Amino acid sequence: QVQLVESGGGLVQAGGSLRLSCAASGRTFSSYGMGWFRQAPGKEREFVAAISRSGVSTYYADSVKGRFTISRDNSKNTVYLQMNSLKPEDTAVYYCAQSGGSNLSSLLMKVKGSYEYWGQGTQVTVSS
């Protein structure tokens, strides 16, 4: 079965950086798009970033564009989220997800329902 395991979360001061990792197993990693979502207390889970199968195409929420970078290493079955210039409003549980289909449009890559498998989440807390 597919497993996604996130790591790298923690507590950081505003303006600082963190790098999240998500190690995948269970099916051919390079065949599926990957995404990062986050959920703050009392809020809906929201799209953060996504990357195509090959890594050529990336997509970002407006709130993180220019600060966060998504990347993947298909030889290591791992996707990353580099988060710079962190703000208190970035505080949330961050989830890694793997798409259900293998060739999603740019629009569908940003949609929560396009992802079939999810990690357990990793907490990111940004103090002011």
Structure description:
With 128 residues, the protein is mostly beta strands. It is built from no helices and 11 strands. The strands form 2 sheets. Strands 2, 4, 5, 6, 9, 10 and 11 form a 7-stranded mixed sheet that branches. The chain has a 4-stranded antiparallel sheet with strand order 1-3-8-7, with no helix packed on it.
Protein topology:
Layout: E1 3-7, E2 10-13, E3 18-25, E4 34-39, E5 46-51, E6 58-60, E7 68-73, E8 78-83, E9 92-99, E10 115-118, E11 122-127
What is Rg?
13 Å
H/E element order: EEEEEEEEEEE
- The DSSP helix count reads 0
Share of helical residues = under 10%
Strand pairing plus helix content: what structural class? mainly beta
Main beta-sheet annotation = 7 strands, mixed
**Percentage beta strand:** over 45%
How many angstroms separate the termini?
A: 40 Å
In one word, what is the shape?
globular
User: How many strand segments?
Assistant: 11
Low-confidence stretches: none
Average pLDDT confidence is: 96
Short description:
This protein is mostly beta strands.
Keywords:
128 residues; mainly beta; 7-stranded mixed beta sheet; 4-stranded antiparallel beta sheet
